[in-house]
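During the reporting period, we have paired protein sequences with backbone structure tokens. One record among many follows, to show the layout:
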Amino acid sequence: MPPRTPSPPPARKRFGQNFLQDATVIHRIESAIAPRESDHLVEIGPGRGALTEALVSTGCRFDAIELDRDLATGLLAAFSIYPRFRLHKADALKFDFAALCEGPDAPRLRVVGNLPYNISTPLIFRLLDQAELVEDMHFMLQREVVERLAASPGSGQWGRLGIMAQYLCEVEALFDVPPEAFTPQPKVQSAVVRLVPWRESPWPACERAALRATVQAAFAQRRKTLRNNLKGLTTEDTLAALGIDPGARAETLELPDFIRLANALHGTEHGNGKTDETGGGNGDK
């Protein structure tokens, strides 16, 4: 009798695992990334390696970060045949991405991953805080998170997450992914998003920490006006002088409005490229 093929490790709830299995979706993600042999790809949470297989075969340098040791064993068995493949058994939230870049002429990292909801926001901002290392990011997320990342002013999704992400990078929602594309099937819809850190920002300079604090205060209670949420921080006259209606809600302001307000409140107009941003929690609006 032929040797029995071992069953793949089951999904673990504590890791938020839902393994991508739909070949059409995998092909669409691969096409969106369009990897080249000269690229340096980093996959966060490769799981059982369905997307890994589609990407690593291009011959690019490929680093995979997997926390689940049982999955790591299968990944090593499947992809060690590729000489430029490396596996890191580590937590992506604590991983030193700078250690992957060797020398000033090394290509920037192209990061991809099917991210659990509980780590998506802090991980994205952790990578954006090292934007000089990152070429682009393609993530599978809950559709609700993608909608917040790509939201426009005036919409119910416009809030802290979208404002900070769009200040730091260009955000593009690519396509939705149904629960049937995964095993086990999640109870929510998913979507793929592309984030490209700005090389030359289109926005006026602003301290990231100042912008975050300002946005958080403005959205302290979404249904209240700026007059109420910013009481004690600024005056109606100051808001009016900045061209901001004190009676408006925060969700009606555009990104340049928040930047002007942050610079006025915190007395700075020059961002230093660093931030204490952590995303403000799982459902940060």
